[in-house]
Records
---
Amino acid sequence: MSLNTRKTGNLSNLWDLSDDEEEIDSKGSEASWNSIPKEEFEKIKAKTRQGCLCDRCERAIDPTVRPDFTSLMKIFSSEKLLRHAAIFAGTRIINEKIVDHFHTTWRHPMHMGVPNVECVSFMKSDKKVCQRFDEYMSELLLILDDPNIKPLWHGTTVKCKSLEKPCDPNSTESCAGCNILSKGFDITRSGSSTPFKRYGSGIYFAPNSSKAHSYATPRGGAGDLYTILLCFVALGRCHTTIDDMPYLNEPPYPCHSVHGRVGHRLNYEEYVIYRPDAVVPFASITYRMKNW
């Protein structure tokens, strides 16, 4: 299953949707929240909504009652992941928030081109991808107050020519992007497209969409069409450095990830994880590059 959503014009706020468009299952919502420790919910609310108790903020961080998450709940089996996605979206509709995040995190000089978003897509992933992510977050929460989950970009190869129908991930002809979206990341293929691994054999992400674009290839042979992935990454405790560490195959103890800070060797920061269970590929965003 995949869900492709075009830009929705001027509709950019969750509360612009009319009540008859909402699909709310109050029993399902109550059961969902009863399965979540109250302390965890309060920490998330205090951190992301500044402890606001109004109905709007309570509703915004609950994916089970958000109309824009109805389809996503059929695609992703992790309640924790969807809650972080709802927190990320705030009162914005999720696909509109992704488009806005794409533009606001594009930091490279515009002489390389101007991105124009075509669509945001979600693909149903193997349940094991969400399951192992939940287990890893639980593992982190045993030793940390915050698993440090960030929405980060990943550039990859997407060969699909059609925006409406992704390639079959079970086919030998399937592209890297569809494989990642449907099966999650494979650490054994880390850095297969680039010989230089600044922080060793890990999975690389960028907070800047333009940084991820530099690792993307034209989609389906089209010279101006590209796709990058938005992922939710559990970074845990980061080892921050400005030095190259190409010998790594795991983060320095006692850390769970590496944060490459801007310095004398790096112009744009990046993050690296060394376990595929620390990330869920959430969405892809397809865009055209227009030259000035």
Note: The chain has a mean pLDDT of 80.
---
Amino acid sequence: MTESLPPCPQCSSAYTYEMGALLVCPECGHEWSLASGDASDGAHAERVIKDSVGNVLADGDTVTVVKTLKVKGSPSGIKAGTKVRNIRLIEDGVDGHDIDCKVDGFGAMQLKSSVVKKA
């Protein structure tokens, strides 16, 4: 058995194994190629997050909501066209949410990058 396999870049599990040309994590199910695992240190792999039209997002960007979103506890929700300033990208959001932000009138919340467009 090879003890030199890198840990999983998503959950840092040490129990990775080879499956053909890929490395696989049995704990979270993440698969990646050995070449990309060697290129990064595994602890801080760079992830690219894109908006609904394919623009790359970065921390501090201003985005516009592209469709009306329902918000639990609010009768109106967030309307399409609402600008959100100073976003922060996160990796461990709940249910696919990868943007942490403050929306005027609603407070702190998480959004999915698929419902915003870079302003």
Note: The chain has a mean pLDDT of 85.
